[in-house]
Amino acid sequence: MARITKNKKLALEKLEPGKVYTLKEAASLVKDITFTKFDASVDVDIRLGVDPRKANQMVRGVVTLPHGTGKEVKVLALVTPEKEAEAKEAGADFVGLDEYIEKIKGGWTDVDVVITMPPVMGKVGALGRVLGPRGLMPNPKSGTVTMEVGKAIKEVKAGKIDFKVDKYGIVHTSVGKVSFDADAIHENVKEFVNTINKLKPAAAKGTYIKSIYLSSTMSAGIQVEPKSIAD
């Protein structure tokens, strides 16, 4: 039988079995039950009443969290020479085109976001087999294929995230770090859930948001009452 550590025991004592918490309570509690030695991520999992296998029930979008994610986002800008200065000034970590396309074809994907321009999508499209499975393929719907390269890079660096419901009907994303104060976690989750609500497909029937869980890296999940998001 696995031994329960002292910290895990303390964390479990703070959680009431079967209780559904308000978002404000959960935002504070997730900090109290996290004992990692590093600054753990705070994650939210939302189960939706949709069938992702049907195109008219797909939920996908972007959101800019008011307090960012707390994560240093590495951005690759695949742009033409005249856009390189704009990309570098906006804070892109890697800037170029052909040399990076060749690196990616060789298996290099040490970035979090790839931003590019419509005129070079012919070249970038060939990278789908490498970038697609890693969720890195640029997409106009997520704002990562644009002529406003500098603006897109700044938004991503500031906390803009791209999300999509998975095949199980769950949307998962990081909404901050445990080092954030509870109010910042609360406001980030609220912004994310409100965005999910705005994207409700017309074809979705019954309860749209079935459950919400807040957790940190290696912590237990805290169930959140969806109606408390409006508080």
Total number of domains: 2
> The CATH topology of the largest domain is what?
Ribulose 1,5 Bisphosphate Carboxylase/Oxygenase
Helix content: 25-40%
Low-confidence stretches: none
Main sheet record: 4 strands, antiparallel
Gyration radius (Cα, Å) is 20 Å
Please tag this protein with its features.
231 residues; alpha/beta; Ribulose 1,5 Bisphosphate Carboxylase/Oxygenase; Rossmann fold; 2 domains; four-stranded antiparallel β-sheet; three-stranded parallel β-sheet; 8 helices; globular
Can you put this structure into words, describing what you see?
The structure is a single chain. The protein is an alpha/beta fold and 231 residues long. The protein has helices at 6-14, 23-32, 81-90, 98-105, 121-124, 128-131, 149-158, 182-198; strands at 41-48, 60-64, 75-78, 94-96, 113-116, 160-164, 170-177, 209-216, 222-224. It has a four-stranded antiparallel β-sheet. A three-stranded parallel β-sheet has the order 4-3-5, sandwiched between helices.
Short account of what is shown:
The protein is an alpha/beta fold. Helices cover 31% and strands 21% of the residues.
Per-chain topology:
Layout: H1 6-14, H2 23-32, E1 41-48, E2 60-64, E3 75-78, H3 81-90, E4 94-96, H4 98-105, E5 113-116, H5 121-124, H6 128-131, H7 149-158, E6 160-164, E7 170-177, H8 182-198, E8 209-216, E9 222-224
Parallel strand pairs: 3-4, 3-5
Antiparallel strand pairs: 1-7, 1-8, 2-6, 8-9
Helix pairs in contact: 2-8, 3-7
